[in-house]
Request: fold
Amino acid sequence: MAETGTTAQNGRADGVFRAALALPGTAVTLGLILFALGLLALLAFRVNDGSLFGAGLTLGNFRTLAAEPLYGLVILRSLVIAGLVTLATVVTAFPVAYYLSFHARARGLILFLVTLPFWTSYLLRVFAWKIVLAYNGVLNSGLMALGVWSEPSTALLNTPAAVVLTLAHAYAPFAILPILVALDAIPRSLVEAAADLGAGPLTIFRRIILPNAMPGVLAGAVVVFVPTVGDYVTPALVGGPASTMIGSLIQAQFGKAQDWPFGAALAVVVMLVILAVILLVRLADRRFGSRT
Amino acid sequence: MSAAATPGTGSGRRWLGLYVLAYLVFLYLPVALIPLFSFNDSIQAAFPLQGFTLGWYRGLAGNAALRAALGTSLMIGLSAAFLATLCGLTIAYAELSVGSRLARLVAVLARMPILIPGVVVGIALLVVVNLIGLGPSRLAIVLGHVLVALPTTVIVIRGSLRAVPRSLPEAARDLGASEAAVFARIMLPLALPAAASAFMLAFLTSFDEFIVAFFLAGTDPTLPLYIWSQLRFPKSLPTVMALGTAILAASVLIAATAEILRRRGLRRLPS
Reply:
């Protein structure tokens, strides 16, 4: 049993230790994340007077946003593109996660292979598609060599479809892990019991596996949707002018256009869109009866 | 798990296996073009191939701007990975062992960058660094990359700390160890492989990161920024692909090491 003196000493040392433990995380999360986001939100309500942080307080940035139909169009386009990418990514990832959870022999290897591109250069993954889709690119030269086309097609690159394809490829591995985690958590006895009671494979999938996997599917959808809705690299490399997304507009405000308050207002809109999507996902999550 | 217990028939399972194979091919085929064309003796990335060359790689070695960008990226990557791992370790440990309201709030906030697109992280930090007088610089990029990597480090390290049986730190406390001693002598050694894995993943994240760095770079570009500047010139494309191949190979090596470390760490834990 420890003496009281040692206990008090230990208590003080524990206090110091806890303070040291809390310091880096608190500094980064409260001091950097919250502060930066708060500052950005404030900047969205400032007037652009050419100075660093603008002047005064105004709703003008948001009024411009609402009045000019171009912005609504670009926001809508970003939503549609990110939505299609999310749908494509989740739907194609689900069978892979299902295979890994229920059937795979070389599970560790396949899982590693699937997540590996995630750690290779994003810029190069996007650029690879430019090589594939370009006028004198791989697809055109390959199809011409095979005699499918006599002339290269310009319809591949610089289209919104190219943006969807490229983003779906770049973010493909993101959705697999959350779905896999959800599938792995399904008690196998549940599946066996259903089979014993005469449920066919389709019924088992529809009534047991899909509802239980839903939280993972929704988590995967959020993880893909967030980076794609704000992307500006892919539209710039393979999208052409008809695929400008909200991220490209924000980038332009902080670059050439030099209107930081308006760029901040656009960023606030992006965050609100993401917040709305997350709330929708939460709602869907609850509707599917998940415990999370 | 027996085959009979899993839904789906034998043929369904074979189709699923084929699908996974096709998925992997789709995942790797475009990326595989980059190494392929980096050895191709032509300025244009198109078929048919024009013959084998190592010339583009030779061009890499003598490029001073590239070497400077590589140095910048390495320095930023190591600093960001160190800070992100330190924060991830302390945040995860404080959440699990102290469990105070602040610790839990910090842990939730630390995962938040997953929900913020890179472009918003970039401009938000650009405003901050300009306001505090730091300006776009290497340090600014380090701060940005710490934020981007933080959710990964917290999640990876938290998973390994949670796998440690509670009886271990409890026994040490009962025997009179201070909280610091429990952390330093028991939990830290057990979490070390996960921390090393988190460090490498954070390094890779930073090393490849473009979107945030684009806003925060001062006069010295990182490697992805250098690549971006070269993508505009058709003449330098083969060199960029040679560079990309080298980065690809290094990334694969680091990612594989991180994965092996993570698994070894989980296996080492007493069950």
Summary: The radius of gyration of chain B is 23 Å.
